[in-house]
């Protein structure tokens, strides 16, 4: 039952064993991770093009993603609001942050580019499908699987060389509280959404375990449950990030823990500049710790829950 879990987790653990001291090599790894994500999402788009009754399937994808996102957001916001009232955490004055996004659209550009890559894959699949047929879609699935293994190894290496010792993470009580609250509320949302999405309880938990890490959740879910559910996971987690960009400036001074936590795993990277810009430098270590913990939890949780089906 756990063989699939071990096969996919092995590259992650092997990558975590590799210590990289060269800044140039770390930058190369970061670029390779980004390239791998784009490549896999392109293959996911091609696989989506191979679905029968594509238009109705895409409509189903959008409906399911919206349903899962709505339930997850409701649970997350309620739990983080409750936590915000109990943590003595207040954002500071907003400093001028170097290289921070100058507008919400600028902050969202990376997310929107990923949507464009998936759409490009669907278009490529539709154009090439009549000529290459089933062979194209099977090759896309196989290539995505091998690139996934490479990506997991690179992600493991990134986590090891992030400069964040586990002792420092576990001692940051606020970051840990935010991460645990976000994780538990997301899993409860997954259980609530599962019957509405015609999923088993463990599949619902897996769908909710991306915690905003849309590139990884789409890849892992798509590999096990097919490109349609992979697309649902992708758009569910991507929409979380897009809403976080809008939500953070509005609530960070009144409900700081909510603003930091809602972005999930992205609070350590993509939404971090927005958190720093509007909440001050005091919010940065809390956001990084929260995002880091959720990034560590997401892959094993997704794979564990999916393995229960086998």
UniProtKB/TrEMBL annotation:
The chain crosses the membrane at residues 36-54, 66-84, 104-129, 136-156, 176-197, 242-262, 283-306. One of its GO terms (cellular component) is plasma membrane. It comes from the Bacteria. Pfam families: Lys_export. Keywords: Membrane, Transmembrane, Transmembrane helix. The keyword Ligase does not apply. One of its GO terms (molecular function) is L-lysine efflux transmembrane transporter activity. PANTHER family: LYSINE EXPORTER LYSO (PTHR35804). This is Membrane protein. It comes from Halomonas campaniensis.
